Amino acid sequence: MNHNTQQVAGDDDFAALFEQSLQESPEIREGSIVKGTVVDIIGDYAVVDIGIKAEGQVPLREFIEEDGSVSVGIGDRIEVLLESLEDQNGLVILSKDKARKRKVWDEIQSACEADGIVRGTITARVKGGLSVILQGGVKAFLPGSQVDLRPVRNLDTFIDQEFDFKIIKFNKKRGNIVLSRRVLLEAERANLKSDTLNRLQEGEIVEGVVKNLTDYGAFIDLGGIDGLLHITDMSWGRVNHPSELFQVGDKVKVKVLKFNSDSERVSLGLKQITDDPWINAEERYIPGTVVEGKVVSLKDYGAFIELEEGIEGLVHVSEMSWTRQIKNPKQFLKIGDTVRAVVLDIDVSQNRISLGMKQLEENPYEKVVEKYPPREIVEGTVRNIADFGVFVELEPGIDGLIHITDLSWTQRVRHPSELFKKGDQVRAMVLNIDDSGEKPKISLGLKQLEQDPWDRIPYDYPIGKITEVKILKLTDFGAFAEIEPGIEGLIHISEISDERVEDPRTHLEPGQKVRAEIIQMDAKERKIGLSIKSARRQDELADAQGFVNASDAGATLGDVLAAKLGKVRSE
User: Fold this and answer.
1) pLDDT of residue 267 exceeding 80
2) Tens-place pLDDT, residues 120-158
3) Cβ(200)–Cβ(222) under 8 Å?
């Protein structure tokens, strides 16, 4: 028998022995996971005895740890996957990695079939959800809708966190696993909810976790059921927004104010755990007491001052300064300022305290009456001009009013701005002080600095006197004429001519000078009646009698006759 014949015979013997060993170990077959012992390390392979006549090889790279070291030694017992009983070189092919992965997948399948739970770590964000690596290195998908009980805005916050998951879809052949965390949370919440509903009672103090914040309050997870802590029940003091006191995730102890087991609605309170600071507040804040506090809110009408936690007082804008006209507290204060004030009033039933800041200063109005007596001549600056008069600042915060009727004895002033502008310096007379209110009202007069011309007008212009006047204005009923600067009289349409006058404009024009007789005088009403036709008649009568001087301006008919008679007697 030659060498080749011997080799063929040897191969046949080995094949027979190998087949015999398989028959003796029927659990060992291709694709199965078997246990073996490392019997040698040759080159890049570990030689493993799996209990059959032939030994298999496992690449050493499958034993490399994360630090790069090879963790295998002769005598180690390992699990391997029997990939092939014989390759092209007649070797048994084994894989430790594939055995491990096969075992993990089998465990996952068992968990899925048993409705069990798997644990894994979220590693990355992917389209539609998150990628999860389960124990054993198997990758699974967690949809965004299955991450939490409520929709999650930022899925990145879950990356690198480890959780338990429920398998909701499993396909071993495709390597597809879909997980849910929400299902477990819902089950957990249902159990907690049942326990919480059984033990929850009004008046009880419980601990919860801040779950969500809104503008009007905070939702507290009491264990499977949420309670609302309204913003008004958070503190006896002022809370502008719940975020000033809480953050999501904070643990907080609260009191159950109301609980309806049917609707599962729970109202919670935090401030109710402590005593109401308004109890006995009347004893601490007696009117007249000087207090100190911090500005916590500014409104158009005033400033709220926190005197202690839960107690605030209001300083109205009218109580901030004696002299400054404050339209908005922001001109005077800012939030966070520490201020002193006086308690003006307290109403515990309404939780209100009225405060005043100006009361800490001397009242400048108390000496106004003494400082500015009637008929006193004062000087000041025009601070403001209104339709009805001029406000004159006599000193900071002290104003006097010159009414439009007290600007001039004779001039017709349509608006004070015709005579003044802001900043003008003026002299005036104190007419009166009304101190019935908190802030005295000072009435000033400008025209009173001069004598009223109407005191002499009746004597200078008696009825019957003829004088030259200037036409100022024409109307349908007559004409207004200037007798002297500031003194006017009315020439009625019936007093223009002996003939019937339909329209004064056909006989007179503005600026024209005419002679007129004083036919009416009312000093009280400051009215003078004039007549052109009466003056013309007197002139004509004087001329007819030869009284050539009768035309002298300012002379009455009696004056002319007396002068003429005196002349006749002298002749």
Assistant:
1) yes
2) 899 999 998 999 888 767 788 999 888 888 888 888 889
3) yes
Plot region of 430 (φ>0 → left; ψ -120 to 50 → alpha; else → beta): beta
List the structure tokens of 334.
């800012």
Helix, strand, coil share (%) of the chain residues, nearest 5: 25, 40, 35
Read off the pLDDT band of 553 (50, 70, 90).
very low
How do beta strands 487-492 and 527-531 pair?
parallel
The predicted model scores a pTM of 0.45
17-101: in CATH 2.40.50.140 = yes
3-state secondary structure of 465: coil
Mean pLDDT of the chain: 83
Report the candidate in 371, 449, 370 with the shortest Cα–Cα distance to residue 406: 449
Compute φ and ψ for 358, nearest 5 degrees. -70, -20
Overall residue count recorded for the chain in this entry:
571
Which residue from 457, 389, 392 is spatially nearest to 417, judged by alpha carbons? 389
Is CATH 2.40.50.100 correct for 364-449? no
CB 179 within 8 A of CB 135: no
Task: Please say whether the beta carbons of 229 and 269 come within 8 A.
Answer: yes
Phi/psi for 6 (5° steps) reads -65, -40
The whole-angstrom separation of Cα 469 and Cα 521 is 16
CATH topology of domain 115-185: OB fold (Dihydrolipoamide Acetyltransferase, E2P) (2.40.50)
- Tell me which residue has tokens 């495709």: 174
Query: Do 478 and 491 form a contact (C-beta atoms < 8 A)?
Result: yes
Residue range 200-273 forms a domain whose CATH class is mainly beta
What is d(CA 314, CA 286) in angstroms, rounded to the nearest whole number? 15
Tens-place pLDDT, residues 204-258: 888 889 989 999 999 988 887 888 999 989 988 888 899 988 999 899 999 999 9
Residue 555: which pLDDT band, with cuts at 50, 70 and 90? low
Those residues whose C-beta lies under 8 Å from the C-beta of residue 558, and which sit 6 or more positions away, are 464
The CATH fold of domain 453-567: OB fold (Dihydrolipoamide Acetyltransferase, E2P) (2.40.50)
Alpha-carbon span 265 to 273, nearest angstrom: 20
As its CATH architecture, domain 281-346 has Beta Barrel (2.40)
Q: Which residue type sits at 491?
A: I
